[in-house]
Amino acid sequence: MTRTGFLHQELTADGRYDETRGGRTHAYQGRFWIDGDRVDYLDDLGFWAYGEFQCDELHHAGYVMKRG
């Protein structure tokens, strides 16, 4: 989750993610793959995104998240 709590992202063991943004639950959902420090996302609507782990933070779409 971000420091402000605006963005929450759950990465599940079955390779799915569920994202809440600005209080809007299930704003984005889809599949993800981790390769080293990189996370690739394929949203259920068909668009791709990516993130990168840097130390204990996940950088994704201009946001910095830490474990909640």
Outline the structure in words.
The protein is mainly β. Helices cover 0% and strands 63% of the residues. It has no helices and 7 strands. A 7-stranded antiparallel sheet has the order 1-2-3-4-5-6-7, with no helix packed on it. Strand 6 and strand 7 form a beta hairpin. The radius of gyration is 11 Å and the shape is globular. The model has no long low-confidence stretch (mean pLDDT 94).
Key features of this structure:
63% strand; 7 strands; seven-stranded antiparallel beta sheet; 68 residues; single chain; mainly beta; globular
Layout: helices, strands, pairs:
Blueprint lengths: L6 E5 L4 E6 L2 E12 L2 E6 L4 E7 L2 E4 L2 E3 L3
Antiparallel strand pairs: 1-2, 2-3, 3-4, 4-5, 5-6, 6-7
Count of DSSP H/I helices: 0
Number of strands: 7
Approximately what portion of the residues adopt beta-strand conformation?
over 45%
Strand order, largest beta sheet: 1-2-3-4-5-6-7
Low-confidence stretches: none
- The portion of residues assigned to helices is under 10%
Shape: globular
Mean pLDDT: 94
Report, as a whole number of angstroms, the end-to-end distance.
Answer: 6 Å
Radius of gyration, CA atoms, in whole angstroms: 11 Å
Give the class from helix and strand content and strand pairing.
Answer: mainly beta
